[in-house]
């Protein structure tokens, strides 16, 4: 690998056989911001639109890989409250994760004014879709969903990362009606457990929040990754009973019920559930986080242990952790350490820079709740980057979602594109792209011309 650039803005050209080049490319693609998006992708059609972001079905020309490309304006992204810190946080989180049950971010392309994020194209819909259609899930299907999510959470928790926004809409499927293809999406509220001060301390979606999070009074306080287990427990309850654990009809009522965390285990829908399922459910919904079961312990529980072993064997056959090639491991690890140091430096700079006052990024629903005590308020994901095709001002989900989404290709709503840092060391990977491909009719060019 040769350096062709100046020290301040290094440019590298990779050399070697095809296998080595592809190994390096796979290593770099989710770690750097690339350029020449319009020369490298064939864009087919728009599959989603919000106020500030559009989602396109696109294909990478060199290998035919299809992705959901989210194109949006950096100006709109950075205008969001705490936008710069959120950018660094989400990008850092997503670049550390690599698991078959965590949504994959393939690569990032950047121009002076626009961002293009290549995300895994998930065509199996969401858990929300299944519940909305009143699908009756078997015990085996529920086990597959829980095990897949817990396996993904295990990697996150091992890396001291917590999701903090597990809910029906953020649980997606790679394939329709294939429960073991479940994937966790949307890392906009994810954070490191040991962060000195959480960017958003009390956050999540009412009806899915752990009591230690929703009742947090000290905004400099901390909690552990078992908050995700409580949220998943609430989802588990809904899958078993078909009813939300906090069934209030208003925002204020649901927040109150969520804070009290009194879950009704005596309802008739649970009377015929397997004893082991009820036992696991109660351990996941333990109010005291010190006594709550962990993600690893959940997978070893009698209700899930056998399914966990089956799905682990399947994943080992289908998925290879990055960095397994010994000949490149040391060089890749060295570059990865540099990237981690750079992220830490950027994060420290932003933390020490003047910040606007914290507050809830309100939707219309939240704006109408100004009279609610501030202790009840939660930081919720801004709809700006969700890429969903319904209104960006739709009411936050407090039980079962209500808004019907458009569904092209039955593609599930993708997660928010990572909100990118402004300054990042760029490594250009040189390719020979046929001229006719560079001049293809690309519907995204119209979008770009408006922005740049």
TrEMBL record:
Residues in Protein kinase domain copies: 41-304
SMART domains: S_TKc (SM00220)
Sorted UniProt keywords: ATP-binding, Kinase, Nucleotide-binding, Serine/threonine-protein kinase, Transferase
Statement: the UniProt record of this protein carries the keyword Transcription regulation: no
Binding site for ATP: 70
Name under which the protein is recorded: Protein kinase domain-containing protein
Keyword Nucleotide-binding tagged: yes
Organism: Paramecium tetraurelia
GO cellular component, one term: nucleus
GO molecular function: ATP binding; protein serine/threonine kinase activity
Pfam family, one: Pkinase
PROSITE patterns according to UniProt: PROTEIN_KINASE_ATP, PROTEIN_KINASE_DOM, PROTEIN_KINASE_ST
Classification via InterPro entries: Kinase-like_dom_sf (IPR011009), Prot_kinase_dom (IPR000719), Protein_kinase_ATP_BS (IPR017441), Ser/Thr_kinase_AS (IPR008271)
Domain of life: Eukaryota
